Amino acid sequence: MRILLFSGKGGVGKTSLAAATGMRLSELGYRTLVMSIDPAHSLADSFDLEVELFHTRTSDPLAIQDKLSIFELNIQREVKRHWAQISSYVISVLRTTGISDVEAEELAILPGMEELSAMMYINQYRREDKYDVVVLDAAPTPESMRFISMPTTLDWYMKHIFPFQRNLIKAVRPIANRVAPFELPTDSYFANIRDLFSKLEGVDEIMEDPRQTSVRLVTNPEKMVLRETQRAFVYFSLHGLTVDTVVVNRVLPSEVKDVWFNEWHSSQDNVMRELEEYFAPVPVRRVPLFSHEVLGKQRLHELAASLYAEGEDPSTVTQTEKPYVFGKRDGIYEVQLRLPFATKGEIGLFKKGDELVIEVGTLRRHIGLPRSMATLVPARARLENRVLTVELKEAT
Q1: Which has more confidence, 192 or 212?
Q2: d(C-alpha 155, C-alpha 200), whole Å
Q3: CATH 3.40.50.300 is the classification of domain 2-307
Q4: Domain spanning 325-394 has what CATH number?
């Protein structure tokens, strides 16, 4: 099963790109699910469906056309399906503070519940071989980072904290429940956590396998949005996911000649040049600003035609190697990147702000650094087996 994860800026534009990709895939014969994990769901709106405000019709996979369904996670339903014991305990604790039942039920939706529910479905569909491709309309960048880091975080918790916490509470519960203002969680609470974890086993391997999961970053041709997209690229790489395409949405068409747009044309051209230089060799695709809102199947067809060439398969694996890898060896931070055609004499590197810049002849690669490495400076570099390793240290 292939997973195409659309993340980044763009709001409903990002959702429409995911929807248009899903339509193209279904027309090529793939059993396709377009799944929204963005709390501000708009998939149903992209297909111009007549649905209620909170889209309960699409809280289970809803067939749109042959081989295409859409699914917008409804967290209230997911709480009842998967989080019953955990939610009940949190609600009981909140009630002791004087919060009303309705408020307690809303507050009992903890950060991460929606992301973990989505991953459980991905694992379930993979095991059942229900779909060939799942197109994920992810939340904006910060929430997407939480989504991809969830399996690692939960795995660490289950191995190091969960057994200790469960045994400790089991030992002190009889005494603590007599004096505490609320009861400690029961065994069913911990059983619910273990059951959830079992449903997630293996999903991290799926997400980090470039033959199964690709990230499509969506951005707009604006400088502020560009910086956010660069940071997203860094953190997806840091978490082991492969970005195989950057989609620039709402590019002002060249046929718009009105002088009022002259500065917009100039600004967008500059941002596009910086985008293509920064993300190379990852391809950058342009989608024009349409003269109308993209709603309904016909207009999604038009969007797909502008994004993909005729007959092009959006699920094709185009990138299997990560553009660069961050690491730490013997207390020294490293950045590694493949330079298959470079030789030692033609490589130059320097630090620019929070970026490491690699020059090979006339080509230049910009590598954004995570916060833990942003203040470091290059100390040593070596080229071995076509892999450049740059060691970073504290500035003196």
Answers
A1: 212
A2: 9
A3: yes
A4: 2.60.40.790
